[in-house]
Amino acid sequence: MMKMRGLAASVMLAGSILVGCAGDSGSDRITLYSPETPELTKELAQKFEDVSDQKVDVHYAGTNILVNKMMAEKDNPQGDVWYGGGGILSFEEAIDKGIIGVYEPDASKDWDVVENGIKVKHQDGHYVGVEVFVMGFAYNTELVTEEEAPKTWDDLLDPKWEGKIQFSNPAASGTSTLMVLSQMMEQGEEEGWAYFEELVEQANSLPDSGSAPTTAVAKGEAHIGIGFDFMAYEQKANGETIDFIVPDKTPILTNPAAIVDNAPNEEGGQEFIDFLLSKEAQQILADWYHIPIDPEVESKTPLTLDNIKENALDLDIDWVNENYDSVRNEWKEKFQ
């Protein structure tokens, strides 16, 4: 069995922005859809161009926007490959919507579907994990000591954090949709909704962007921010007074890539997915403080699968698929 070791959540934008290499789109080019950090995806695209004879156009937007775009283009697909979406849940939803095809790279064919309690690829080849994301708590080290920082999800309800927490809006952010779904699975729906009734009262803001709470913590606008691990470690590397807590029993999941169904440049899209699992691409992800799927690539993040796998919450993917839309709609009814 493969042993993995040591990434965004999505920033929601009003539309898709071309951040890749310039040039007219054509069948000899690869169109990449991604909600991940524009600078990161541009670096990945440039490296692929350096090691191949194809060009890449990167279209950047939030996960939900990209999914809606692929739905609108379903009868005439414009994208070739989709990378990233705050983990596997949006990809699982996309399978039911019929917007992603089937492709399994040679590099992942010997992987089990679930390894170390984490689903690393789709059982029918609809997506493959590229890296590992950990949901947890960023905290401002000038405002909160490591000792007093919350260690569990229940710790967030301590009265001392009233007005000092930020998490993104689950109606807009895939990051927080994952948070809500995971708590519903862990606590049951009745207790889960009761939990969020309290947590909302603790928050000073619910921005739409999945990375905004971590940025707010770095700026001192919040003491605690809920988000993914790499968001905090990137900020810390830039000199911000911020650190990250991996809470007990939290979502830990792979962030995948998939071929767009009936992609105009399907072969090119497949080559790009192969590239994402290569040492070159895995090293780029590692240098951006992501936990790479390749166990031989060492990341700048202090987290590895070995030191976090005991914290992984068991995610019932079938339950998620059945309740994804209804939970988001109920959130809107209750809190917006």
Automatic annotation (TrEMBL):
**Protein name per the record:** Extracellular solute-binding protein
Whether Signal counts among this entry's keywords is yes
Q: Which Pfam families match?
A: SBP_bac_6
What PROSITE patterns does the annotation carry? PROKAR_LIPOPROTEIN
Alphabetized, the UniProt keywords read:
Signal
Keyword Acetylation (UniProt): no
Q: Which InterPro entries match?
A: Ferric-bd
